[in-house]
Amino acid sequence: xxxxxxxxxxxxxxxxxxxxxxxxxxxxxxxxxxxxxxxxxxxxxxxxxxxxxxxxxxxxxxxxxxxxxxxxxxxxxxxxxxxxxxxxxxxxxxxxxxxxxxxxxxxxxxxxxxxxxxxxxxxxxxxxxxxxxxxxxxxxxxxxxxxxxxxxxxxxxxxxxxxxxxxxxxxxxxxxxxxxxxxxxxxxxxxxxxxxxxxxxxxxxxxxxxxxxxxxxxxxxxxxxxxxxxxxxxxxxxxxxxxxxxxxxxxxxxxxxxxxxxxxxxxxxxxxxxxxxxxxxxxxxxxxxxxxxxxxx
Length: 297
Ligand SMILES: Nc1nc2c(ncn2[C@@H]2O[C@H](COP(=O)(O)OP(=O)(O)OP(=O)(O)O)[C@@H](O)[C@H]2O)c(=O)[nH]1
Ligand SMILES: [Mg+2]
Description:
Radius of gyration: 20 Å
Bound molecules: guanosine-5'-triphosphate, magnesium ion
Oligomer: single chain
Strand content: 15-25%
Distance between the termini: 28 Å
Helix content: 25-40%
CATH topology of the largest domain: Rossmann fold
Strand order of the largest sheet: 2-3-1-4-5-6
Number of helices: 10
CATH architecture of the largest domain: 3-Layer(aba) Sandwich
Number of strands: 9
Shape: globular
CATH class of the largest domain: Alpha Beta
CATH superfamily of the largest domain: P-loop containing nucleotide triphosphate hydrolases
Number of domains: 2
């Protein structure tokens, strides 16, 4: 069988996590319209076993944080995480949703420095009229480093199967890295934290959720019910007030929506309790970053 590791990299907000979820067939990575949603490396597994072993394949996709100019230590961690992934994979998907701009120049340089095959994935083609798509396509096709340039829609699933077909031809013979039915190796607790953070990204104004981190404080699996206590860390006292909202309404809304998603993930009823705490400048504290899970593996 064929198998291998495939990195998904690109600028923030181009749809990398949505693509990972589409390929894995499950929501593993949170995805929002706000840039810098993903902060960690997130693995998603695609397995297709055929009767004939030679036709079987397992691909381990690695979603990464969007590469951007970091403004704090968290940002440096995120960008480092993404660029280091490049060196550890058998193929790389460079995801973009427009022709290369100034933010892409740096990534294209990084891509030029690796030997594994690169595929330029132009995402969000559902939003691009054919003429506009052609212009974007040409802009990447002229970079000879790409083995292929392909338009997809991670949201509708269009051409995702073609992408899988292209990758299959690139991979070498290899072992199964994960069991047949695995979709990710992310612990459920990590995904639960991410789902809470996703709701904060969705329901809070721009700058606040970028300074938010979520940590599980207690996790108790009872029969048919999981009790989860989580702390939301923010950077300022004024942010704490905004996260909680008038009469606690904002936090209640976040909790309700996060709970629904976590119940879908775990398949059991969930009792979710949220606290908000201030941890000043945690995004620039090595100690805080490490304790919140933003550490090198
Ligand atoms: N119309 C359309 N929207 C898409 C598509 N793929 C992703 N999006 C949207 O684009 C936004 C960003 O998607 P993400 O998957 O979070 O992007 P990302 O590249 O992982 O972003 P970061 O984690 O911040 O680097 C979300 O609002 C998605 O719903 C697509 O194919 N079509
Ligand atoms: Mg993402």
